[in-house]
Amino acid sequence: MASVAYNFMVVDPNAHSRRYSEHNGFDNYDPRDNRPLPDPIREYSSSRSPSHRNSVAVDLGEGSGSIKRRRSRKKSVNGDKVKDDRIKVQVCVQFFKVGEIDTLKEQYTADVIVRARWREPSLDGQLSEGGDITDIRKYWNPKLYIENSYGDHKEMFRYRVVFNDKGEAYMSEKRTVKGTFMENLELDDFPFDVQDLTVTVASEFPYTEVEVVEDFENHHMVNKQSFVDEQEWHLYSHTECIQRELTIDQFDPSVRRSAVSVKCRAARRPGYFVWNIFMITFLICTLSFATFSVEKDLPQNRLQLSFTLVLTAVAFKSVVNQSLPRISYLTYMDKYLLASMFMMSAICTWHAVVTILIHKKADADFVEYIVLGCLASIYVIYNVAFCVMIYAFPCKKRRIMAQKDVEHNKLRREHTPSQPALRRMLTLTKTISADLPGLINS
Questions:
Q1: What's the rounded Cα separation, in Å, for the pair 84 and 211?
Q2: I need a labelling partner for 377 at 20 to 30 A (CA). Which of 19, 46, 155, 189 fits?
Q3: pTM of the predicted structure, to 2 decimals
Q4: From the centroid of its chain, how far is CA 264?
């Protein structure tokens, strides 16, 4: 049975620093800095045994709303860690609405709901404290933020207190974020690529104090129905979570923050590129073989036609490059376009060399038939091998993602209660909620 308290508010980003400067004379101390603690606490720490890392109790208020946190990290004589008392903050990310995925700028827009919860021991067993939280600053906050957000984004916060069956209190935060997120796109398989859309949630406290972990009770979610860029991308329903440590200061590796990265995946729909780029390039390169129909004693006409096709392919590739970022590696589209241009360049080279054999017509015809057959065979084999390579590598990743979607949907159906069971749960919840005030007063 849970008692829930809600608070809808927009948090001032400087509120935390002011809170720490207003209480108990911490005028020059901000927990986000790496500076030492104030003198009274440091003197208390020095009085402890050197074989243990000191346990520090910080009181940032008075009365029932005071914040009391005890963090201790015990060590043995040789310095090995024995006990980890970091505060665990459980995080769940829900992709409520995924907007446009910009390949050129390597970013995407989305509406994301970040749910976080952590223990609040000061409220343990105080079921009567349920209700609206008028001042969230009275309670400890892990100071979570979105690490890969870009530019100005809108955030709305909602807080509540939840009690479990043992009477232990948990502070729950629901953060709704609407903005742009940076993502390093891997374009090796373009336009058959599958991209990760990541949201990284981190804490401003050092990793020695706060550990951000995945919430295994509340599952991550992707809302496919509100996906905006459906015509160009296919959004998968499964998610993956990775726990990380962020290095804030490159010159001081010890300054690290705990974080989790939750990612969903989207596969690009390659139909547009297949018909408008690959097919057009294939036709242009195929037409270059038609220049062999011109008489060998007119090499200027052969070269004129071949150069026109080459310049057409170059201009076509320049237009294609405008839709891609300036990357230092070749995509599958670059490989195909360059291979077609190499083939047309080889044909142009032959039309220039054939003038040497123009005086021996019989030998020139025989050699040209061999050259035409070899070039045509190489081009056909390359196209077949390219299609096989696409199926074997980029499409294999798509098949793996589709299989993960099947497994995800299967697990979701198993954990989703049936309609009769859901109705019984709702009825029981309403009954308990109606009887709760009487139980508290008694």
A1: 10
A2: 189
A3: 0.73
A4: 7
